[in-house]
């Protein structure tokens, strides 16, 4: 193989593949350069003048190294890794750093292993991180727990690339023994450690970094991004579906600190991937925000390769992996062709590969909730003032508000108010836990809506204006093994997320069509279009984001960092 | 330890050491920044506002990450690693990538192991490369051979950091099986591979890089440096004693390609280190040549750390090793203090550590040459025209010239000519091999001079105007176990290089004084001051540098790449 590569590089033998007549971004010089790109045995033999057994004319186009998504939860697409690959490879992405945080919270290490094994069926290169925060907090019931000892056990596994985003910032700075164990295990194994430290700075940030945490993708101001980069962190510029931070952080990037910036999508749902793309979308935003096109490419390729120690990736240069994206231009970033290991895997928006889906038992039939009756959703108050969760548009934070509430027959009366009943039903261990609260501002009328995607423990979250329909939703979600369901006028519609209750085993087209139909039903029930009807619910159970959330164990005041009663 | 570091970083506990009131170069931003630097447990806890159990006032000074010499042969200093460390750490260097090419050509793997073990006695961090070219060519007799199989055997050893400079460029591009075996072994072990590819470009260079060779320190024009960097090589800007390439290559460095440049010294002798310094000297030249001071620091620190995967080195930032050099300014680079792992190891030009020397038997008594008589140096010619080596000032290349030579009594007559007799006497395996040739332009009269440093196989090289004194030199070098000797008017003076015939076990001061005295004796015998009298001889046996050289097997025409007769 090496010998063949040398022969091809020197021009003694024809290369396997040559991209002819185009230009390419040289990430080492920041220049757009002319020259044929010769590929042999999956590697780049060289650029210059070459002939190939197969030649692709890319005149008028610009080749760049295959894009690297430096941090992504595949589960947020609600697609399998196989379908995910088919959506993103035609956009120019060839490698992702995947943190299976969601599925691992449901299925434990088997979830991470599933993501890895399923990825072996597609040309997308998926580096799987070991989630560091399973469960994310001690205030909810997750499907699985990964302790410090588990981290020690799994961090050295072949399919584990590093330690996933370390969300437990207090655990680091207060030296929580389990957190310390996890960080020491990663250090001992010589693995990379991702971070997640919104709104940290100064000496607290120093401590977090000194603990061995290398990256952050939560910056929302250029000052925050600049400080983190100046302290040696790799800073992901994130362009997700809900969290779009590239534009705001672009001004933090300077020629001198540029090498510390990466691109990532974090969470992007299927419809967004289909309609707007993946890192190609992030690149469009980056360039529109003032980052020079060649610099944007360096950020999306070489920098991620360096950060994640992906030797041989991130450049079009001799000896590098022949992972290449060919764009029409560096403004609209329309992807013409994608090569992975020298093979053409996508062209003009279409993936050129098929994959049989890997669907192991371990990630299926994960809904293990007790049967519920309508009465289980009764909410008995002592008085007539209640702590209520107020949901905000375009936001995952909530507000705590106090409202007057009437009761009758051992339950609150919702009729004539803007309030809905919200419940989180434990679904992993049949504990029967149900947390019940009140939600304001969502707008649903005449039924209930619910799903098994509820960050980060992914219990059943259900919202409604009557107990019967809420119980019907839970029954339906139990029946279909997880997914999304809606009950309007007594009629149930649902969509199965049969993998861990998080992801659909359907193909992307089918899933997108079904989920959009379901969404329209929700809007028809009065849900404000300011919300993504299902996904906005899924963050109401996440007790690390202010100000007030609901878990299967009750109402949680994030500011006080403890449970509170509903009576105010 | 991690817990203590976190406490110090957050300011909950005093740091072990704090550098107060100074500035430092932030290699991630290219800026000169103010702030205390806190150190705990050998690592940097953070910068900002800190208090320490021990505090050093560095007001008016500038701290930078400890300098990293990206490629050096310690043997060229002719000092032990212990003495070498004492010379260079006060200049701000804390880590070196050491290629023990010379001593391994004499002693085999035991030579590399010696360099590593001796380095454990000093705070200097020495990463030892496995020499890839032992012997350097097939046209000479070295002390040892490292085959492809040996490389497979040793490359995974704990004390081996990577594969040393791959000088065998033809071996790569013509796919020599042994060369292939070595490169594949390094790739399989996931180790870095250094290069050495003077004057290569285009597709040949592509092939060399595609073979997995990552670096080059032989660029002598900015065009060559720029091409190599553009193809993803790390390019060492070299400032050695004889080869000073920083100034000429400085214009190749741009903001966009800057991260691919490193600094190295390659070969620097003791007197030069003492008088002019180490990387501090290279930094002075770099800045004088137009590289911005902060960029020069990035090149000398972060870039080398990234190239050589020295995670946790190369920056002053939380969690990084507390390897720090404090300079008076970024123009003269006078080093005020050097810290290694948080410990003050040098101050105001003086090393603050002592080290007992490690002197294993394996690297001593390495002169194993047959006894010689004056007659062994007779040179019988068939005719009266001889191929003669013409030595050039300030240069390691030579010219082939043809001269009329008289013979008498079965030997050439040197009297009345500018010619001297040059001999290379095999000294490793008692083969009795003696290569004899004629040298022009050196200037010695009335005696002989010789040494056991003769690149790269390090046989005895001896030069004289009469056979008796040449034989006396060889006898003396055998007696003292290797070194340098001079015979003037029948009187012998010598200096022992008792480690492999290459390095002195004496302290640096003593060695420098002795070697300068010996040099003066050589100049007193008429050697032109344009030559470093001994070291200029040591390159006359290196059959890879044009145009005509002498090995223990005879006269070698580098252009024809074969032996030639002396008769012309």
TrEMBL record, chains A, B:
Domain (Adenine deaminase C-terminal): residue spans on this chain: 396-561
GO biological process per UniProt: adenine catabolic process
GO molecular function: adenine deaminase activity
SUPFAM superfamilies: Composite domain of metallo-dependent hydrolases, Metallo-dependent hydrolases
Names of required cofactors: Mn(2+)
Reaction catalysis annotation: adenine + H2O + H(+) = hypoxanthine + NH4(+)
UniProt KW keywords: Hydrolase, Manganese
E.C. number: 3.5.4.2
Domain Amidohydrolase-related: 62-345
Alphabetical list of PANTHER family matching this protein: ADENINE DEAMINASE (PTHR11113:SF2), N-ACETYLGLUCOSAMINE-6-PHOSPHATE DEACETYLASE (PTHR11113)
NCBIfam families referenced in this protein's UniProt entry, alphabetically: ade
Protein family per UniProt: Belongs to the metallo-dependent hydrolases superfamily. Adenine deaminase family.
Name listed for the protein in its UniProt record: Adenine deaminase
Organism: Candidatus Borkfalkia excrementavium
Gene from which this protein is expressed: ade
């Amino acid at each position: 193989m090496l010998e063949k590569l040398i022969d091809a590089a020197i021009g003694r033998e024809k290369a396997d593949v040559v991209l002819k007549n185009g230009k390419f971004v040289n990430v080492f010089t920041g220049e757009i350069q002319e020259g044929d790109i010769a590929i042999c045995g999956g590697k780049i033999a060289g650029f210059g003048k070459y002939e190939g057994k197969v030649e692709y004319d890319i005149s008028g186009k610009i080749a760049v190294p295959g894009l690297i998504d430096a941090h992504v939860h595949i589960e947020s697409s609600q697609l399998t890794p196989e379908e995910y690959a088919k959506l993103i490879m035609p956009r120019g992405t060839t490698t992702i750093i995947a943190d299976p945080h969601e599925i691992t919270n449901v299925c434990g290490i088997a979830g991470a292993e599933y993501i890895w094994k399923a990825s072996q069926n597609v040309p997308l290169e998926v580096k799987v991180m070991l989630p560091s925060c399973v469960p994310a907090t001690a205030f909810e019931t997750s499907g699985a727990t990964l302790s410090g000892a588990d981290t020690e056990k799994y961090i050295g596994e072949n399919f584990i690339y590093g330690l996933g985003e370390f969300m437990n910032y207090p655990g680091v700075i207060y030296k929580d023994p389990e957190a310390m164990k996890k960080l020491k295990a990663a250090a001992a194994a010589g693995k990379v450690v991702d971070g997640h430290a919104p709104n940290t700075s100064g000496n607290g940030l120093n401590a977090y970094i000194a603990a061995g945490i290398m990256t952050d993708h939560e910056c929302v101001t250029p000052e925050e991004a600049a400080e983190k980069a100046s302290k040696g962190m790799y800073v992901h510029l994130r362009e997700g579906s809900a969290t779009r931070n590239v534009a705001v952080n672009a001004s933090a990037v300077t020629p001198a600190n540029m090498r510390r910036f990466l691109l990532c999508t974090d969470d992007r749902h299927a419809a967004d991937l289909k309609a707007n793309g993946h890192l190609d979308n992030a690149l469009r935003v980056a360039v529109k925000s003032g980052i020079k096109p060649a610099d944007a490419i360096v950020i999306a390729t070489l920098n991620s390769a360096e950060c994640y120690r992906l030797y041989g990736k991130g450049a079009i240069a001799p000896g590098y992996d022949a992972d290449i994206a060919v764009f029409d231009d560096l403004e609209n970033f329309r992807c013409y062709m994608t090569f992975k290991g020298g093979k053409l895997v996508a062209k003009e928006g279409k993936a050129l590969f098929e994959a049989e889906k890997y669907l192991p038992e371990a990630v299926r039939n994960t809904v293990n909730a007790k049967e519920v009756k309508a009465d289980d959703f009764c909410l008995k108050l002592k008085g007539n003032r209640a702590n209520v969760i107020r949901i905000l548009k375009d936001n995952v934070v909530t507000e705590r508000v106090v409202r007057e509430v009437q009761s009758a027959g051992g339950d609150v009366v919702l009729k004539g108010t803007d309030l809905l009943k919200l419940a989180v039903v434990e679904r992993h261990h049949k504990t029967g836990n149900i947390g019940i609260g009140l939600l304001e501002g969502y707008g649903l009328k005449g039924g209930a809506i619910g799903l098994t995607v509820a960050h980060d423990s992914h219990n059943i979250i259900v919202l409604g204006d009557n107990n019967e329909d809420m119980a019907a939703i839970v029954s339906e979600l139990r029946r279909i093994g997880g997914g999304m369901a809606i009950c309007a006028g007594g009629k149930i519609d649902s969509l199965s997320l049969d993998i861990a209750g998080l992801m659909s085993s359907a193909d992307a087209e089918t899933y997108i069509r079904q989920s959009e139909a379901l969404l329209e039903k929700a809007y028809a029930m009065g849900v404000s279009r300011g919300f993504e009807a299902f996904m906005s619910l899924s963050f109401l159970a996440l007790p690390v984001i202010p100000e007030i959330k609901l878990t299967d164990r009750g109402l949680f005041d994030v500011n006080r960092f403890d449970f509170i009663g509903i009576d105010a």
